[in-house]
Amino acid sequence: MPRNLLALALLSASGAAVTACGGSAASPTSPPPVTTSVVSVSPAGGATNVATTSGITIMFNHAMMSGMEAYIALHQDSVSGALVPGVATWSADRMQLTFTPSAPLQAQTTYVLHMGGGMRDANDAPISYANCPGFGGQSVTGGMMGGGGMMGGGNEMGSGWKGSDGDYGMEFVFTTS
């Protein structure tokens, strides 16, 4: 039997499974790890003519940890611009977060939704932002934060804002009508 086929036969006979991505062995009885992801943001990054009375909705594919609403901020003009006051509330299943500004947004103005890089799901696992560029999101780096992290009176460089990859989450820029 050729060497490659013999190795494959031995591997199969041993009951080991090799994953397609990464090549590590996994137990056939253990489920793959669950990754919580952002699955939509409305308004999406790049949206224009957004109603000044619009709320902002973020959907996740799994429940999120209590307190993660503290890592959502809406800024005027840029990620280092003034904070827009409002209230963030969760759906009953903690998979949808809605941010409602305290007052209507200003007309013909740019706004930036900032989601912290250290957000965690209900199982205390970091979430994935891999889908975010598909709906207009872009990574927020320390250099974008206006030096020192004092952003419109807030501090978005502490725990929960910085992810394990060193970025400060994602931003979604939109313009009102």
Word description of this protein:
β6 and β7 form a beta hairpin. This protein is 7% helix and 28% strand. The radius of gyration is 21 Å and the shape is globular. It has a single domain, classed as Immunoglobulin-like (Sandwich), CATH 2.60.40.1220. With 177 residues, it is mainly beta. The protein is built from one helix and twelve strands; from the N terminus they run αββββββββββββ. A four-stranded antiparallel sheet has the order 3-4-7-6, with no helix packed on it. Strands 5-8-12-9 form a four-stranded antiparallel sheet, with no helix packed on it.
Strand order of the largest sheet: 3-4-7-6
The first-level CATH class is given as Mainly Beta
- CATH architecture classification name: Sandwich
Largest sheet: 4 strands, antiparallel
Mean pLDDT: 83
Cα shape: globular
Number of beta strands: 12
Helix content: under 10%
Looking at the structure, the CATH topology is Immunoglobulin-like
In N-to-C order, the SSE pattern is HEEEEEEEEEEEE
Please state roughly what percent of the residues sit in beta strands, choosing from under 5%, 5-15%, 15-25%, 25-35%, 35-45% or over 45%.
Answer: 25-35%
Spans of at least 5 consecutive residues with low confidence: 3-24, 148-153
Which structural class fits the helix and strand makeup?
mainly beta
Radius of gyration: 21 Å
Taken together, the total number of domains comes to 1
How many separate helices?
1
